[in-house]
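Page 37, top half.
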Amino acid sequence: MSVVIADTLPDPLSLQQAIEMAGDVQHYQLIEAEASIMAAQSIVEQAEAALGFKAQLEIEAAYIEPSQIALDQSSNDSRVSLRMIKPIYNFGSSSEDIQAAQTEQIAIQNHMPYLIGLRKIDIAKQFFEVILSDLKYAWDNESMAVEYIRFESAKDRHTLSQVSDVDLLESENNYIEILHQRQLSEINQRHSRAILAELLNRPTELPSNLKFPALDFSGNEIIDYPELLEKVMLKNPQILLAKKQLEAASQRVSAAGKKFGPRLDAEVEVSEYSRVAGSHDEWRAQLNLVVPLYENSTIKKDISIARAAWLKQRASLLNIEINLRKRVLALWQKINVLSKRRKQLETSQEFRELRLDKSRALYEMEVQTNLGSSMVAISEIQYKKAKNDFELFLAKMQLRLLSGETSLI
């Protein structure tokens, strides 16, 4: 499920390659998940210990003043005993503790693909952020070039008294503003790469070249909301985990209630004595049946704690279901809006490309044109279209993960 990834990042780095690194076992999020599995295993072992075989060596050193009628008048009454105890039956308490611990452990293990899926989405989101930072820089760079030309033209015209001081200052201000925006975009290029490097667990190796992903949106229509919600509520990993944890909590309540019940143990004891006495047994095998007659406050406390844990887990499950319904509705609506927006942006891109061709043709014929503005418009629409596509793709990834799917792209 989780793998160790090679030390060197591919160059250029593709979305698929980045996604595959989500299972890097050296990342702290997966280390935490493995720690949770180990903790659950320790609880299983602790529960199994209650029915496990126990062996203990007992050494007793004693000095006595023997009775005058005793056959052995020696004063050394020391002994060594090897005692072996095996609980046979405690009327279901320990077995239900074991079952509860095993139920929770298996649930946590089965939840691991979901945690890796969350990392896949985080990586994809940051991968897209890097590409958007490059597109935003290209947009701002085009805008800066246009404003610079306008500012230089304004200075020349100001020298000829064709532009006022106010207009020249306005042109300079516009240039400085877009120059500042381009500098911010340049900073964001490095910052977004640093975050991606951290997510990929390669903090010292910033990915410089990323392949622009070819996202396929064909044949992937979203189903109606009621059908989608039913599917998510049935297969959602968070709900499945919470339900198993609720089941384990219920088993612990039952186990706590059975602790005030009879207990049957088998015991074998082998002893060696310093004194010879008729009451000394070299070995002994016995069955011990313990029947409680009074329920003390300790048992009542255990039952109360178990019931409180069950109620807390039930509340957690209900909270997950409430938040999940809201999350699914928000994603479903977002996907519908972004899908329609995608078609609008495609039309806008076609229009701007045609306008750029027209401006370029006029420029080549040395006719006055707005070629610079047309190039800025192309950079702008490329950024907006990519941003819309990335948000749409991420929303669908999240919806697939909420539906229990692990192959997200």
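Page 37, bottom half:
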Amino acid sequence: MRIFADSACDLPKSYFDTNSVTLIPLRVQIDQTEYLDIMTIDSTQVFSEIRQGKQPKTSQASPEQFITLFEELAKSGEEGLYISFSSELSGTHNTAVMIRDQVKEEYPELKLTIIDSKCASLGYGFLIQEAARLNAAGESLEKVVDIIRVKAKHVEHLFTVEDLDYMARGGRVSKTSAVIGGLLNIKPLLHVEDGKLIPIEKLRGRKKVMKRMIELMEERGDRLSEQTIAICHGDDEAFALEVKALIQETFNPKQIDIHMIGSVIGAHVGPGTLGVFFLNQL
């Protein structure tokens, strides 16, 4: 079975290099130059450009990318599974479905299941890693699909951003809210609900945000000591390590993974962003 994932899962390039997962890069445009996420640009460069006042633009994977990959899959005779970035945050999922149906007209034998993860960043990355593990263990496509569809509904995302101005540039919050937030050191806490990024509350300062994140993890998480918890950061590893230490002290999880936010999501949330991902009760 071939597994496909787009770059909004925020797993590092090394993951795709060493696991049997095919990367579908989303696109980032800075000035007049277009890059392929992970492949021809990394998020360090994106955050650097944002700090200099630029606003990178992002776009979904191209139809041509999907046509090439799906035709290759059909010709190979293998089964395929594409778990996509939330359809509420990108048009990539819908494009993939459209292209799959188009390719199937020419190659009726194509067997490709596409799942809308309704997740983002390392929450989405959780599902990719789980599917790859199941595939390596020899599980059938049907079983992998069933497990991923269930787990996708139980991934918790908790996000905070350093500067509301970055989200204002992308139209995620009003400019007035960004200015007031900056003056008062307001840090929004957000989560993902049915695939959409939704604000939960606003707090003053990082310390209060961190404390509230831990409280919400305790309320929502299930057997956190037995889980692998993921942390993503917007080019601020020190902040990520601070949160990691707090999670370790409070829940003592099996493992904590830290990765930098990818270029596409990073372009919208900006430097200093931090996200925590875990599972609620299945």
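Margin note: Residues 170-184 have pLDDT under 50 and may be disordered.
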